[in-house]
Each structure stands twice: as structure tokens, then as C-alpha cells.
Amino acid sequence: MKIHILGICGTFMGGLAALARSDGHEVSGSDENVYPPMSTQLEALGIALREGYEPDNIPADVDLVIIGNALSRGNPAVEHVLDNDIPFASGPRWLGETYLRRRTVLAVAGTHGKTTTASMLAWILEHAGMNPGFLIGGMPVDFGVSARTGEDLFVVEADEYDTAFFDKRAKFVHYRPRIAVLNNLEFDHADIYPDLAAIQTQFHHLVRTIPGNGRLVVNAADGNLKSVLDRGCWTPVSGFGLAEQGVGEWQVALEEPAGRRLAIQYAGQPVGTLEWPMTGRHNALNALAAIAAAEAAGVEPTKSIEALAKFGGVKRRLELVGERAGIHVYDDFAHHPTAIRLTLEGLRRAVGNARILVALEPASNTMRAGFHVADLPSALTAADFVWLRSSDGMDWDPLDVIEKSGGQGRARSRVDNLLEDLLAEARPGDHVIFMSNRGFENAPRRFFESLE
Fold first, then answer.
1. Binding site residues, as ranges?
2. What is the pTM of this model?
3. Which intervals hold domain Mur ligase C-terminal (predicted)?
4. Binding residues for ATP
């Protein structure tokens, strides 16, 4: 089949293209911006890329056009597909109906931690010799690719964002997993969902698709997830949580403040101790969820602990860009106040009294619209100095957020000015972290290369 993908350079759609190519399809694609690293990966697979959404970029003899959820009516390529009655589908639907139905699916859902937990789970299965396939919304360091075909087991990052302009259900309802992780649930994606209840309905739809002989691995301390399960659940549930909270049959205890040594328990009995380079309570819970999901797939927990001790992390998840002039520079994807807080708290426990300098780009539609502005100051309290990138589309005052966070800070609209400030302020011993769910104009790398 000849497939053309609109929006191919996104992580999900690029991974989809790689899977389709490995399945024997002839694949091409177009995007508004074609750039590395995704363009390099796709071209290496023999996938032809075209820049822009002009109708001529779609092959005349195409059998199917897969349309990314970033495209909507009015886009010239979309209008061309509709006007000429060209067969089309969403990425999640194609993935679910023509690819995942032949495999045993392990899905990882939740507001936070999907990419990291899915990467951990895939790495555990790999370590156990199961050769899993996966499609992850990030780049696991241990694999070096965001997607691969594998054998029977397939790990998918199950996003609650909408499917396409013509299908407003969450992406994950198309995946039909046998094992599913529900990490946590908070309000997000205000451009799609009016309130938390609307997102809970989508999670309820996901729960409805999981068979009775499958397994749900659920954060036992999350009241919003409990409300989802209270609406109906037909699958055995394994709960997980922090030992200090005393909930869930799977529990984890931090044996040192940063979380680099974890004690894993099941049903009140010790399973083993994980020593690894990751930090924070959030990553402790991510690891526990991955261990529990892998156990449901037949992997002994001790084997999972062995695997996670060698886990290399995920790019842009508190990724250390490097150290120069005594200054540590990190690149991080966090864009929700909870994720920002947990990441900074974990870093604070790891670095002690060293200064933490944060450059935050509030780039998501939800953040820019101000839905989370009340929670931002407390999310930033672990930082000593905060730069917020302001923009015309923001409906709130960044200086007010900085003042309420209790630290020093500045608002800058231009990245060049922000980097000038940072270079003047940073000194040996500092930890500088850039936080954005977009490109931030390559600010982390530019800052690191400017250090003397």
C-alpha cells in the first residue's frame, strides 16, 4: 500500500511512519517544518519527505492518507484529500486497526510520566529477551529510536489528546490494550477538554476496552483515577503507590532523599532494591508501574529491577546536556505545574544547596491560556532563579508568577535576551534547567555551547 502521512515529523507520526515502512508499505510524508532529528531518521528508512502542505506533495496514486491531529479544515492538503475523495484515516485508528490488532498491547496512560514509564517498560521487556515493539512519544536513550516493530508484545504511549479533526475521542481508545498502566490523572489540554470530568470520561472509555483476562496497573493514591474505576471496571486491578502512603499492593520506598536507591515491595514482602541514576518520587512511581506491568506480562520483578538498574533514561526528561565551566545544563520536557514541581523537587534533593536556575517556556495551549497559572508559583519554589519566556498569546503576567514563587526572576520575550541574562548570572556549581514542550529555539544547546 502507498501511504502518505500529513504531519509526519511529529514524534508520534514519525514513529507511525517507521512502523508502516517496516510492515512493507511504501511511505511518504509532508509537514510544515521538515527538520532533524526526525527527518534524518525517516530519510534513513527510505521515506520521502516534502515540506509544506501543498496538494502536489501528496502522490497522485496514493492509497491512503494518514492525517495528524495538528491539521484541521482549511489546511490545503486536508481540503485536497476531502475534495478528491482520497481514502484517509487518523494515525491512532490506523495503528489500532491495522497494526496493533496482531499484537499483545501494553499501553501507558496518564497526565504525567507516560513517555518515561513506557520507555522503562519496553527496556524491561527487552532485557527479559522478549524483543518488544514500541511507539513512544520521546526518544529512549537505550533504543535510540522512538518506534520499532518487535515481535508479539508492543508497548504504546497512550495519549489522551484528541485523535484528529474528524475524531475527537482520545487517541488511546483505538489501541485495545491487554495490559494498561494508569499513572495519574489531572486536568490538562484545555484546548480540547472543558473540564476534568471530560477527561475522566475518556479514561473510562479506555477502561471499557480492556478485557477481563487483562490487567490494569493503577496509581492507588490518585482519587481522580479512583473515580474513573468507580464508573465501572471489568479487569483485575493492581494498585501501586509510595510506601509512605500505605496504598497499593505494589509499593516503593525511597531509601535516600534523591531517590537513587529504591526498595520495592509486593503484598508487604520485599522484592528487591533498585539502585539507578534517576531521581525523584515521580520516577520511583514510574519504575514501580513499569515493574508491575512487566510482571503482568510474565517478567519476574527481580529481572525488572536488574533492567532498570541499567536504564539510560529518555531524551528531554531532565536530560543532562553536559557540564562546562562547573555548570550543569539540563533539557526537560515538563510543561504542567505538577511535572515541573516534581522534576525540580527531585533535582533539589539530588543537588542539595546548589543553585538551580530555571528557564521556562510556557508553550502549551493550556499553559499559555492561564489555566494553570495559580499552581505555577508553588511548582517553581525549588528554584533559586526563574526566567519565564513571555509571549503575545499569554493571558497572564509572568512577573507576578515569579514574585509569588519566592525566588528571583525575569520575564523575557526573546530567547536571545534570556540567554544573555543566564550567561551573566550562571556561575560554577549551578544547575541550569530549560523546561519546554516545544523547541525553545534550541536554547539548552546554545547556552551550553556559549559557556566558557
1. 110-116
2. 0.86
3. 316-437
4. 110-116
